[in-house]
Amino acid sequence: MNIERVIAKNRKALLTLDVEEKIEAGISLLGTEVKSIKEGRVSFKDSYVRVENGEAYLVNLDIGPYPNAHFGNHERMRRRKLLLHKRQILRLQGKLSEKGYTAVPLTIYVNDKGLIKVEIGVGKGKKLYDRRRKLKEKDLKRRIEREVKYGY
Q: Hey, CA dihedral for 137, 140, 144, 150, is it positive or negative?
């Protein structure tokens, strides 16, 4: 993955999902959607990936309207087709059919060729006690590093 410029990150997904696999995919977008994304008018809230009829779709990705469009602005919450190879779609469909697995967008970025890509994370949702344990481990690690650095 050769990232040139990250536009948006889904921080909540990393807290609530135990990511086992990451997939890079292109997105089928309209012109005003491309311009809105490049301006950072995108929100991941409640967005996820669904496979239907052998095609992968990004559902509930909120791309805000482009303010300079004269007419015919895009629909904010429409399904957007993900551009993946057939093998990747079949593997994704197999994972999603297993109990507890879900796929969510992790980052949207512009690659070195100027194309907008989305990184999809596939994994299981974390339980509340897993999240708490992870936060405690992170806090403990920070304290140890602080003590080593400053000596208290």
A: positive
> For residues 61 and 82, what is the distance between their CA atoms, to the nearest angstrom?
12
Fold type of domain 3-126 = Small Protein B; Chain: A; (2.40.280)
* Contact present, 26 and 58 (Cβ < 8 Å): no
Decide: helix, strand or coil at residue 82.
Answer: strand
Report which of 113, 114, 84 is spatially closest to residue 21, judged by C-alpha positions. 84
pTM score, whole prediction = 0.77
Q: Domain residues of the chain, as ranges?
A: 3-126
pLDDT in tens, 137-150: 999 999 999 988 88
Asked if residue 29 lies in contact with residue 41, where contact means CB atoms within 8 angstroms, the answer is no
At 67, the amino acid letter reads P
pLDDT of residue 3 exceeding 60, the answer is: no
Helix, strand or coil for residue 43?
Answer: strand
Residue of 147, 144, 116, 124 lying closest to 42 (CA atoms): 116
